[in-house]
Design brief:
heterodimer; A: about 550 residues; mainly alpha; globular; B: about 600 residues; two-stranded antiparallel ribbon; about 5% strand; elongated
């Protein structure tokens, strides 16, 4: 493993940060402003992608900027784990930039300049989180990410949006304080916070109680953004933001920075062997398993599509944390390798699938102003490509083969079974069935029901057996009359599945994200991400995983 | 012949192209793609072809052995017949595309040479069949959702079993494939049990079967023809792969119980397709019993029965479908005397009914006979053996009587009793061709059983292979078949009156559907209310803390009931406070 001194990690972060200024300056000329965004995202993607081949060989790109203060090294490094997150964020930022154009213009939203500028700042912070070489840099970019995303969460400027923004800040800054506490403890115990594959040496010989305390603080702090229960409630409320924000930031970048932080702590600060010795992995896995199942249960009751997707995100993020925690707790063994691969692969797998789903929700809002599932009967006629992509991503969430969700869940299952933790296996399997229960009604109501001829949604709120059930019949049969006043559009008109349903700026990224989900489900190695994951696990466990 | 592509590829390609083609071209392509599987798998050499890597695991995409070849032959044939029937029954391209997707994924499942391929295609079969059911709309949609959940649970258990096996052996490959483990089947003691229950959903174990009569009668009549074939028989194939060597006693008895239970419940049904759906469970019981017994004779019998059953059950759904298509009625209570109006359909129905009941001269007699023979010679006496007949054997024979009774009922009420008001046309040309072809095969394989024996995995006519050489047309066998038929006639005559007064007989889903629905609703409401309460408490706590910190005076005043407490100390109070603090500090430092 060679260290390559290069400016590319710094450049990848700076490109989008520097783009903020021209975006703000060209507010009066929207096309020029959008061009800056697209240029920045293409450049970022290019820079990150150019580092992938060497990283797959085991090299690391490092940019050292010196240290102003003792213990605070301004160093950026692009190693396998960093490249995983950065590649994901930059690829999906490109798609989201196109989508944002279609979405914001389709709704004729206000303050688009502020939106695009904050978006660029957020992506810069996310790439910074990815390429941080030590905990302090990670913390710095982590907090910058919160600051940069606040204007996006509160974009609507309504009372609800401001309240959601305040809650978001309260939770994430609170988490940041916990992280800072953990960092201070780590510095006290080990003298350094630089990431070392396999863990920082100084921590291994340190006092176990303090080490556990540091672990708890760090994981709790990062766990806020990773939406571990009970620290998750900022996420459903943050759905008040525009959909591209909800999608990229809250399903891809912000929440993934939380799990990324946990991954760094488990793999490069403590190391899987120390976590197993300290016996802290199992408790984290229990929290993750609890979140997994509970969030899926809550999702069953949500009528608003974005809220349902938010709870699904809470649940799916815990798949990642579960994989990491089980892998760490079972070290050193075969199970570690499988569980870590599953958890880490779920980062890109979930990102592509969830982004598809959010893009679809946004497209439905732009084209038909439909936000609630109970209004979506027959919408597949109006938006066939969109709902088709939704169906593919929903199948993937349930773990159906051909889509990315099956691949990562498969590795996770092997990991939990090999480690002997059957409770976690059962939690994963139950969650798969619950995913069918809360996603597939959306698919079937879109394509196979029509307004006036549909069951009440959410299904659990309606009569047993739906509109044909005995409960509905003896009820005087009122299962259909005016879904509490939402029926204001009349039946959806049919559009051909050739893009006639909306702008290509909106439909194109949807198809891109859905295709990515399928690519990761069929050829995850060829689609690069699984190769990167194997490289990460090889470094973290010193076990050969190329096979 | 060289193995170029796995046989599922052309079928799935046809499925993808169908929605973009004309109706005639599309269906012709679909029928051709499915029919082409038959000569292809017959001619290709045995062995594990087309190894590949999926997610880094070794898989085999085209594993050819006598078991998978038999499945491929019959799946390909019935797929083609089903597409022809779909075209003739006014199914549209998208529905047939979903059906072909279902056919293709089933073929992929039976030709996989490893557990990963099998579970991969198994899940896709569940998805494609769900889409096929949903497509019809109306009541089929909610039923399809229940179907998806049931198969989601079954597939999940099977997935758990496969993963467990991998954790024990380190490979997904079958034992018969190069690179596979020593012992065939699933390793350990947990994996086979999980797999049996998971596959049990697909084959209709008692208690896990209610989705069969709930779902199969709902969609388009042509869709039912496809549905009745693939899921359950791939399940039997999967069960064989789990227990390839010595079978499993519990599975064998479950098969016997299914044979009786399914036939009994079928007798209570008036909806034609619901009656046929329960019979699927009953007949699959014979196959599952064969797999459970585990000897060469039993396994040969099970797979012979798979082959034959696909023929006559497909034919039965086709004839019932023609009746529904022409009359618009689903229920036996609204039909009668159709033999006069629809002689060809009635004739095809009679052939199929005699086949399923096992009347001598038809294919069901042959394969049922092999399984019953195996239950006699290769299986223990069991708890209630009587007069030289083993317990399992008795269950299978009783199932045979029940089968005769319910098909006499079907034929009586639909075709032979009474007369039909009005006139209906018989099956149209396409439907007739499909039905007559399949009926002919039922007769051919009944009269010339050696033709079937040639494709079975074990030679049942050779004493070196099976424990007891099987002779189809012995006096004993024929008498047995005729006796069952007679018992069936007598039994039907006895129960005809009371049966006609019977309403809808509840099945296990009358209990578990409301339990699951209301139970889940209670759980969801409980969790969300708890979460909301905790959230409210936290928010209130945060609000109170901020209020106290922002203006302590107001907070203190509120607790004491005063409007506002001034926390400013005056001159004398200040001196007192400072004195107290100093005294405490001095005392502390002195005591330390």
């Amino acid at each position: 493993m060679t260290e390559i001194t290069s400016l590319r990690p710094l450049a990848a972060v700076l490109v989008s940060a520097v783009a903020v200024a021209p975006i703000l300056a060209s507010g009066a000329r929207p096309n020029l402003r959008e061009a800056w965004t697209l240029l920045a995202s293409v450049l970022t993607l290019g820079l990150v992608a150019s580092m992938v081949p060497a990283v797959l060989d085991g090299d690391v790109y490092v940019t050292e900027l010196g240290s102003l203060v003792p213990y605070v090294d301004f160093t950026l490094q692009a190693d396998a784990l960093g490249v995983l997150f950065a590649l994901l964020a930059s690829t999906l930022w490109l798609a989201t930039s196109f989508y944002s154009i279609g979405y914001m213009r389709g709704l004729d939203e206000h303050s688009q300049t502020r939106y695009f500028a904050a978006f660029a700042g957020s992506v810069a912070s996310a790439v910074g989180v990815a390429f941080a070489a030590n905990l302090v840099m990670l913390y710095l970019f982590y907090e910058l990410l919160t600051v940069a995303t606040y204007p996006l969460v509160a974009h609507d400027e309504t009372d609800e949006a401001r309240a959601a923004g305040r809650k978001y800040l309260a939770y994430t800054f609170g988490g940041g304080v916990a992280v800072l506490g953990g960092i201070l403890l780590v510095v006290h115990l080990a003298g350094t916070t630089a990431f070392v594959p396999g863990g920082i040496d100084g921590l291994a010989g340190a006092d176990p109680t303090l080490a556990r305390a540091a672990f708890a603080l760090l994981v709790t702090g990062f766990g806020v953004k990773a939406a571990l229960m009970p620290l998750h409630s900022w996420l459903p409320d943050a759905m008040v933001a525009p959909t591209p924000v909800s999608g990229l930031l809250h399903a891809v970048a912000v929440v993934k920075s939380g799990v990324f932080g946990i991954a760094r702590v488990l793999l490069d600060v403590f190391g899987v062997d120390l976590v197993a010795v300290l016996d802290v992995g199992t408790l984290l896995a229990v929290v993750a398993a609890f979140t997994l199942v509970t969030a899926s249960v809550i999702a069953l009751r949500q009528d608003n599509l974005k809220r349902r997707l938010a709870f699904s995100t809470v649940s799916q993020l815990s798949y990642i944390v579960l994989g990491l925690a089980v892998g760490a707790a079972a070290a050193p063994s075969e199970a570690t390798k499988w569980a870590l691969i599953g958890g880490l692969l779920h980062i890109p797998a979930h990102a592509f699938m969830k982004l598809t789903l959010f893009f679809c929700a946004g497209a439905l809002h732009v084209e038909t102003h439909t936000d609630d599932i109970s209004d979506m009967a027959g919408i597949g006629k109006r938006m066939p490509l969109t709902m088709g992509a939704f169906a593919v991503a929903a199948a993937g969430m349930a773990g159906i083969p051909l889509v990315a969700g099956f691949t990562s869940k498969y590795f996770l299952l092997i990991g939990t079974v090999s480690a002997g933790n059957l409770v976690f296996t059962v939690a994963l399997l139950v969650s798969g069935v619950l995913n069918i229960a809360y996603f597939w009604p959306v698919v079937y109501t879109a394509f196979f029901e029509s307004q006036g001829d549909s069951d009440e949604k959410p299904l659990l709120a309606g009569p047993f057996g739906g509109r044909f059930g005995r409960a509905a019949r003896t009820d005087g049969g009122h299962a259909n009359d005016g879904h509490h006043g939402h029926d204001d559009h009349g039946p959806f008109e049919r559009r051909a599945p050739n893009g006639a349903e909306g702008s290509w700026f909106v439909v194109g990224p949807i198809l891109f994200a859905a295709t990515g989900s399928v690519a990761l489900g069929v050829v995850p190695d060829a689609a690069v991400f699984l190769q990167v994951v194997r490289e990460i696990v090889a470094g973290a466990t010193a076990v050969g995983v190329v096979f | 012949m060289e193995a170029i592509v796995p046989p599922f590829v052309p079928v799935l390609l046809a499925a993808l192209l169908l929605p973009f083609l004309g109706r005639r071209t599309g269906h012709a392509l679909g029928a051709l793609a499915s029919a082409a599987v038959v000569p292809y798998v017959w001619l290709v050499s045995e062995g594990a072809h087309l190894p590949a890597k999926l997610f880094g695991f070794d898989v085999v995409l085209f594993n050819v052995d006598p078991f998978s070849t038999l499945m491929g032959l019959i799946f390909g044939f019935i797929g083609a017949a089903g597409v022809l029937y779909s075209y003739a029954s006014d199914a549209d391209n998208l529905q047939t595309a979903f059906a072909l997707g279902y056919v293709g994924t089933s073929i992929g499942a039976v030709f996989g040479g490893d557990w990963l391929s099998l579970i991969f295609f198994w899940e896709l079969m569940a998805v494609t069949s769900t889409l096929l059911v949903w497509y019809y709309g109306g009541k089929a949609v909610r039923a399809g959702f229940r179907y998806a959940l049931a198969h989601g649970i079954g597939g999940t258990l099977f997935l758990g079993a496969v993963i467990w096996h991998f954790a024990e052996t380190g490979t997904f490959l079958f034992a018969s494939v190069p690179g596979g483990p020593e012992a065939a089947g699933l390793a350990g003691s947990v994996a086979p049990v999980l797999a049996a229950v998971g596959i049990g959903v697909n084959v209709g174990f008692i208690g896990l079967h209610a989705w069969l009569p709930d779902t199969y009668p709902r969609p388009h009549v042509a869709a039912s023809v496809f549905l009745c074939v693939f899921t359950t028989k791939t399940g039997v194939y999967g069960m064989y792969r789990v227990f390839p060597q010595d079978g499993n006693v519990a599975v064998a008895y479950m098969g016997g119980a299914m044979a009786v239970f399914g036939a009994t419940m079928a007798l209570f049904q008036n909806d034609m397709r619901r009656l046929l759906s329960y019979h699927i469970q009953s007949q699959v019981g014979y196959m599952v019993a064969g797999v459970g017994i585990g000897s060469a004779l039993a396994q040969a019998g099970a797979f012979a029965h798979v082959f034959n059953h696909i023929l006559y059950k497909g034919l039965l759904f086709m004839t019932a479908g023609v009746v529904v298509y022409r009359t618009g009625e689903e229920s036996l209570k609204k039909l009668g005397g159709l033999a006069r109006e629809m002689p060809l359909t009635a004739g095809a129905f009679t052939v199929a009914a005699l086949s399923i009941a096992g009347f001598p001269g038809f294919n069901g007699f042959v394969s049922k006979g092999i399984v019953i023979s195996a239950s006699h010679y290769d299986f223990g006496a069991g708890p209630f053996a009587v007069a030289g007949y083993n317990s399992l054997e008795i269950l299978l024979l009783v199932g045979g009587v029940g089968t005769f009774m319910s098909f006499i009922k079907f034929g009586y009420y639909a075709f032979f009793h009474g007369s039909y008001d009005g006139s209906v046309k018989d099956a149209n040309r396409g439907q007739s061709v499909a039905m007559v072809t399949v009926a002919a095969l039922c007769v051919v394989y009944g009269l010339f059983p050696n033709a079937l024996f040639a494709i079975l995995p074990f030679d049942v006519t050779s004493g070196a292979v099976v424990s007891h050489v099987y002779h189809t047309y012995t006096v004993g066998h024929i008498l047995e078949g005729l006796a069952l038929a007679a018992l069936g006639l007598v039994g039907f005559a006895l129960v005809k009156r009371p049966l006609s007064g019977l309403g809808r007989v509840p099945d296990v889903d009358r209990v578990y559907n409301p339990a699951l629905f209301y139970g889940t609703r209670a759980l969801v409401v409980g969790v969300t209310e708890l979460y909301a309460a905790v959230d409210r408490a936290v928010v209130r706590g945060a609000a109170v803390t901020t209020a106290v910190v922002r203006s302590p005076g107001d907070a203190a005043g509120r607790t004491l009931g005063d409007e506002r407490l001034s926390l400013r100390a005056d001159y004398s109070t200040s001196i007192l406070l400072v004195a107290i603090v100093l005294a405490v500090l001095v005392a502390a430092s002195v005591s330390l």
